[in-house]
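Forwarding these from the shared drive since the link keeps breaking.
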Amino acid sequence: MFDDRVEIGESAEARLRALLSDEAPASSASAFAHLPTLLVEGDDTPKAIHARIDLALLCAVEGLLDSALYQIDELTKDARRVRDATGDATIVERADASRDAIERVA
């Protein structure tokens, strides 16, 4: 996106990868490429929020920390809005856990 890659440690990478969903693409480039298709259904769906969480985590795993922090900041706000609309509390829990993990790495 707009930042330089930084090296992250193996344990930090493992913590971030543990938060990825089973549907997570292999890379942030793939996640970015798939995002427009998901957003056709709307950016306020649980599926879109979970895909954006994976995107933020993949950015962090790849050392794109500025991108990861930007993504997760907006995402945690959106997750609360979607939780309120759908009742899916797992979205906020996952977004918050991902934000904490990304901030620890950064």
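-- next protein --
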Amino acid sequence: MRALALALGVATIAGCGDDGRAALDGGVDAGLDAPIDAAPPSWPFALPAGFPVPRLPPDQRLTAELAELGRYLFYDVRLSANGTQACGSCHLQARAFADGKVTPSGSTGTVLRRNAMGLTNVAYNPSYTWASPVTRTLEAQALIPMFGKHPVELGISGHEPEILARLSADAGYVARFAAAFPGEAEPIAFGNVARALAAFQRRLISGGSRVDRYRQGDLTALTDAELRGQALFFSEVLECHHCHGGFNFTIATDHAGLPSQEPHFFNTGLYASYPASDPGLWEFTFLEADRGRFRPPTLRNIALTAPYMHDGSVATLEEVVDIYARGGRLIVGGPDAGDGRTNPNKSPLVNGFTITVEERADLLAFLRALTDDAFVADPTLADPFAPPPASPQEHP
């Protein structure tokens, strides 16, 4: 379908709706956004069948100890200044690490302007956030919710000594930082926190959906309706695969076997004129043609990550399909009223198509078959602070 879900929303790291240009406010030197190395790194975790090795920045590494430290930090509310929010507060495993909200709120209650993107397969992203061409590593992305002031997410800025003291007072963290950063005299530092968070997110790899099982040879994995939907998805009539193809179901994919990839951004005709409060890629380039352009997320686990689009303004997958079938969204009434089909910057692929009721149902069935049930229930990715599930009561 000519770009189905070019901007299907899914969520960023802990508050991840906004880009670093505004959030960091010039107050934090990322120091981690290094050039990308084309050399394939070693990868200490199992990858799904047929998946390439993700690319690591040349000055970063990935170990089981580092990723496990990152898992604890990802779910720990003590990483926020007021002790109320963790990265995992906006990235719920059951929702493929999205949050189910239109837009999330930071630890101080500030509502973010963008939908929290799901974290499925973020290890393969060439860029991060909805519309930043310069946030190229997970390490750099982690600094945005940590230190950002506009908006405040975790709210670490101005509370650095206090938060490091919390971590240093926890014997478990002392041991985990030492194991993750052997040989460092003072491993409990914010640069290492960002590296650990990035390492955990690189573990969030999903490739066990029924679509994957079918591709691996299990011809019973998909129903007849899902197979018809798959044929539609990859057809030249709907053309979904031109923006959401490949193993990761998005054109915005990078890995160690490729030359370094540049990020892709699209205008999907969501608005006739994108609101001044969020003009997308234009904030970085100041080019009129980039107004309203955003990054296309993966469609893996897309059924779990509603609401959709960069601003969370589309509630259901059904509505997403209808928008692309019309070639843009018509909004009647309100401050954003207008016909997105007439947007002059709209991607040429978003020009509409004809689809029957039965075909629409088949396409939706295929998209839902991209759900990886094992991924969203994997205990090695789960909140280590959550109480264990209650045991079933025994009956005499």
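The mean pLDDT is 89. The first helix runs from residue 20 to 23.

- D.
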